[in-house]
Structures are given as C-alpha cells and as structure tokens.
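U., I forgot to send this yesterday:
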Amino acid sequence: MQLQIEIKGDEALSKKLKDEKKIKNPLAKFLELAQKIVTNQAKEFSPVDTGFLRASWSGHINTEAKPMTAVVTNRIKYAMPLENSGFSPRGVGRIPFLRPAVEYFLKTKDKYFKELGKSIEQEYQK
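Result:
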C-alpha cells in the first residue's frame, strides 16, 4: 500500500480557453512546481528514525493525461499507517506529514495561480 496524492490540472480551464496547446506548457510548469513543493514539504515534515521514509518521496507529472496530473508518492509500506497513526515522533518531523505538506501548498497557492495566469496570457499574446 502506498501513500499518494494526485494534483489534477483544471479541465474547466482547458474548456474555457479552448486552445489546449496554449495552456499545456504553463499548466505543466504549474503542476511541476506544485509537485515539487508538496514533495519537498512532505520530505521536510516526515519523521526521521532510519531516514527511509524521508528519502522515499517521489513525484512526477503526466502531461498526456486529460486532465494533466502531478503525483506525489511514497511507496514505503509503513508510510500510510504512520500518516494516519497520530503517533508522536521522537526525533525530527511530525505526524501527519503529507497532509501538512498539501496544506502548505494550498496556503501559498494564490501566488502560483497568478504566475500561471501570467504565463497563459503570454501564450495567448504570441
């Protein structure tokens, strides 16, 4: 069992702007940034005993999916039970660790949405 979060591109945005080619690159960059932020925060928040959990975070984006998606994953078997355990770590980190990483991105998302909007405007001005 793996611990995973999926960030989806906006289908409504694609339909509204109609030209998928013009929004593909800006949206892919936005999803890559979102994936990196959540991955880095999950690593930072992960409790450390042996270091396997922290080192096992990975992420990727799929620009061919409709809608495009970014995925953050940890395949360590104990990641999901630990995320939901309420256990208090003895060393560095906190539990839960993935939810606060997502919350961190959501708190800062407006800045990144503005950048996405500017990138899309630039594509349409070409």
